[in-house]
Amino acid sequence: MQRIPKEKAVLAMSPANAPVLRVKSDSAVVFETCDCFSNKIQSEDQLFGSVGWDSINPATGPLYVEGAEPNDILKVEILDIAIADKGVMTTAPNFGVLGDLFQEEVTKIVPIKNDQAIFNDRIRIPIKPMIGVLGVAPAEGEILTGTPGEHGANMDCKRLVKGSTIYLPVKVKGALLSMGDLHAVQADGEIVICAVEIPGEVTVKITVVKNKSLPLPMLVEGDDVMTIASAESLDEAATIATKNMHLFLMNELKMDKHEAGMLLSLIGELKICQVVDPLKTARMEFPRWVLEKYNYSMV
Ligand code: CA
Ligand code: CA
Hints:
Layout: E1 2-4, E2 9-10, E3 12-13, E4 21-23, E5 27-33, E6 59-65, E7 73-83, E8 86-91, E9 106-113, E10 116-118, E11 124-126, E12 130-135, E13 143-144, E14 152-154, E15 165-169, E16 175-183, E17 200-209, E18 218-221, E19 224-231, H1 234-252, H2 257-267, E20 269-274, E21 280-287, H3 288-293
Helix pairs in contact: 1-2
Bound molecules: calcium ion (2 copies).
């Protein structure tokens, strides 16, 4: 299987980034990833401020997918996520929801043992490795890897895990897929602007989908299909995620708009992904059993 080493990474998603590997549709590729601090924090005496913005949120890639053209969909199946045996967390003044309460920077090293994050002497948390940043190049300009959007990137969605499938819009030839920012575990919200940040490697299968239109990004994981949206405010992100799922129900399941709206009010779960990045991210979770009732399969 082809691999992209962690040293081949970008700090912005851009059509100007030179591809580091080219593959055909239906290929499997391994992305080795640094943590969001470029692996520069190894002990608790190293603080966030020592890292430097030119090392924050490296995303391994970009990968050029042959045959991917603007308006296609890039389907990325997460076949596996392997993580290191130690992660790191940081807090810093004015960062995250509680930033006004922090007067100094603090670093915590979080060992991973037996699929648990050792938070402190009393607390062990079951890990659920996920991908914080996974995105394609925008049509023009560059977007820092730390900013989420329609092109994916720093969505910090805790359901982007092994076994999930993420659908992104292709904006440029080759799509230019990059990813990084793995978390051993993260809760919805990501309150202090980091989770258990950890290096690792992600194995994905990539497929180009032609002649299909979906309200993207979309994610399928476990029993749910999801629309994900990012915006200046959480309110706005929540509205877009909801309207995108509503559109999906109307366009794909051919539901009446009132019927679809009522159904979302009953079984559409509106959730927060994160509230700490330059844009906030929300998702609408909808149960897949309804798709089965309509004999609908995702592409
Ligand atoms: Ca992140
Ligand atoms: Ca992170």
